[in-house]
Amino acid sequence: MARQQPPQQPPPVQRLVIQYGKLARMGFASHRDFARAFERGLRRSEVPMAYSSGFNPHPRISYVNPAPTGVESEAEYLIIALRETCIPADVRIKLAAVMPEDFPIIAAHEVDPSQSWDASLWEIHLDGISEEVLTQAASIFMEADEILVSREVKTGLRTFDARGSVESLKPVDRSTLKVVIRHTEPLVRPADVVGALTLQNPPEPRIKRIRQGSPTDLLT
Question: How far is the CA of 198 from the CAs of 94, 129, 138, 201, 220, in angstroms?
Fold first, then answer.
């Protein structure tokens, strides 16, 4: 006897972009940790989610360029699909009321097809490194045509160019760099940029994503 097919879920009527953060200790939470916390928040807030069809329906959530584990961010994004039309500000308030303090729900708005997430603006704090040393290291980096770095991935050690994806790298005050990195394949992370700098015994960097957008917007 043929297995009975599950009922098809109705299509979403609205999609919202949710901006959230990963702050303080939650910067060390994995993407999976956040996803579990967010789905609990959706259930508790009773946001009218649209669900996928199939034998195991799940809420329709799409994540946009999640930050790597171990860094803070004020500019994480996801898209949720709803089965009922809602006021975005009301959804933000409901979610903010049930999410952990260090996973703040910053904003919510309807999907804008023109919105870009092609690059990120990061702050990199290197305690104890003078602005003069950072200026020199940033200048050497930006003047290079190519800087190869290596990172361990699932398939082994991968070597790639860390320079080509960097639109801007400059110190903004003592011990702090700001860098704009385009989202390319392979993805260049701020830690890769730090590893490529001509610094002797650099400290463990403290990294925070400030914004996502088009490279042009982030350079202004």
Answer: 47, 12, 8, 10, 27
Cross-strand bridge partners of residue 153: 156
Look up residue 213 and give its two tokens: 């957008």
H/E element, 178: strand 176-182
In CATH, what class is 14-110? alpha beta
Q: What is the pTM of this model?
A: 0.91
Domain parsing of the chain, residue ranges: 14-110, 119-219
Would you call 94 helix, strand, or coil by DSSP? helix
Sign of CA dihedral 56, 57, 63, 69: negative
Residues 8-57: tens digit of each pLDDT: 888 999 999 999 999 999 999 999 999 999 999 999 999 999 999 888 88
Residue 12 in tokens: 């979403």
Helical H runs in 25-146? 31-45, 88-98, 131-143
Tokens at 39, concatenated: 């789905």
Compute the distance between CA of residue 139 and CA of residue 170 in angstroms, rounded to an integer: 8
Pair 181, 167: CB distance under 8 Å: yes
